[in-house]
Amino acid sequence: MKCESRDVSQEQDDFKVGDAVLVHTEPTSLDLENFMIESFFDKGTEKFVSLRKLLRRRLVDTTTPKSPPNELVYSERIVEIEARSIARRCLVRVFPPDEIIPAPYDRSGVGDAFFITHRELITEDGNPQYVPANFDSLRLLRQGFNPSRTAHSEKLRGLDLFCGGGNFGRGLEDGNAIEMRWTNDIWREAIHTYMANTKPDTCTPFLGSVDDLLRRALLGDKKAPRPGEVQFISGGSPCPGFSLLTINKTTDKQRKNQSLVASFASYVDLYRPHYGLLENVIQMVQAKHNRDECVFSQLVSAIVGLGYQTQILFMDAWSFGASQSRSRVFLLFTAPGLRVPKIPIPTHSHPPGVPLRRLGLMSNGQSFSRRERLPTPFQFISAAEAVSDLPDIQDSKADYSVGFPDHRLAIGYTPAVRKQVTQIPTQPWEMNFSKAYYGAGVLEESTRRHLFPSEGKSRVSTISRGWGRVHPRDLFPTITTSCGPSDARVGQINHWHQPRPITILEARRAQGFPDHERRAPGRPRAGPGDPRGLVRHPA
Hints:
- By secondary structure, the protein is of the alpha/beta class.
- It has three domains: 19-137, Bromo adjacent homology (BAH) domain (SH3 type barrels, Roll), CATH 2.30.30.490; 150-370, Rossmann fold (3-Layer(aba) Sandwich), CATH 3.40.50; 385-511, DNA Methylase, Chain A, domain 2 (Alpha-Beta Complex).
- It is built from eleven helices and 17 strands.
- The protein has helices spanning 57-60, 167-174, 188-196, 210-218, 252-271, 295-305, 383-386, 415-422, 433-439, 445-451, 504-511, and strands at residues 20-23, 33-43, 46-56, 71-82, 86-89, 91-94, 113-122, 128-132, 156-161, 178-185, 204-207, 232-235, 275-281, 309-316, 327-334, 358-359, 369-370.
- The strands form three sheets. Strands 1, 2, 3, 4, 5, 6, 7 and 8 form an eight-stranded mixed beta sheet that branches. A seven-stranded mixed beta sheet has the order 11-10-9-12-13-15-14, with helices on both faces.
- β2 (33-43) and β3 form a beta hairpin.
- α5 runs parallel beside α6 (295-305).
- It starts with 19 loop residues before the first strand and ends in a 28-residue tail after the last helix.
- The mean pLDDT is 90.
- Belongs to the class I-like SAM-binding methyltransferase superfamily. C5-methyltransferase family.
- One of its GO terms (biological process) is negative regulation of gene expression via chromosomal CpG island methylation.
- Keywords: DNA-binding, Methyltransferase, Nucleus, S-adenosyl-L-methionine, Transferase.
- It comes from Eutypa lata (strain UCR-EL1).
- Residues 513-539 are annotated as: Disordered.
């Protein structure tokens, strides 16, 4: 027996002439390139394929160096290669140059979604010229789906629990198969942010505990969705109950956070959706220690007991276009009789030094899921790349950046902290107080005593990450609820050469929030939340 949903490769016979495909052209490389299948032929016993190159526009057209990384050019270049070098299909759709690119084609290649606006013409002198694509000349291309033609009635009606600002739910909607009709969160500003970015009269919000909403649903409240209406349930239950950042997970508050997983299962029991998705930190899965207390295993047992087919996914944010170090476990479940969705395949590479690892342990000795090193069409996006277009605001004392209103600090930046951050060297990269004082010794004793807390504080210990700077060629660290530049555990959120913590907009970029999306007034906050690319995959 073979589980198709776990297989990232495709059989050669699955492909057809006109398919847009990703191809492994260099045996020693993990890079994938875009092509279109022109024809198949045999050479002896080997199967070969004739391919048309689909070039990355930003790499070949000098007039558009800042074009999206997933914009392609239909070229006149034909190559022949072994059919087994084809990795998988991808989505490619042609748009007029003046048309606004819709999701998922506007998301920089996440979900293997690409688009074409221009084609290559070779002039008489042999130089390439790039002109608007002619639809008739591209008729052979089997284009990706048209998102504007998907009717609302064809989408699954979704309920988004623990919705936060909506990055998770809108990422699911970007795949064009789900439309969130109901949403819930206990934080007022989160609900307002969510609703500010939805279409009018499509989604009903509920501000309050998920337990209160469940009670209303059980009592038949007209404001709550009724059984039979919800076809998809998603949720990211509060992670502090499982996170490594929570020092004491046995308090009443954290026990309550942990118990909300049971509330999610109760929603599944009540509504019996076609599909559902739960996410949380990977520490929710207990592989060796405290197996009897593994909440995740108990949840899987409950979902399977309701008759659902389940898949456990171990996914990294950076593998799906986010410039942030964040790993999550997902429980994807499918109602009996329905086809199990295919596992999303990473589109971006791992940063250097990322270890391969397994997640969880089943009774047969196999892991639930694992991190693999797979060929991808894109390299990971570093912190510096993600914010390269933002202006230098120095210490952000002006508190406003023309054209980028969210390019300002999310916290009060006192004169004392400002002086402390200024003393942390910018070179070598990723410096913090501990490295500057205990390691390199560039922080003098008099400066330490005058500006920094006294010895004995965790923030100034040898293992502290307080006053740490982000490495520009690496990922942003995990974005947390509070942005404390001197925090001993998550204090590595200061800019690599500017004397300040990262701004709201930089945190939004790390999380995958598009710049144009609105944020509700109130306490400025961009995290925590799951980067949209993790769940942004076409159906």
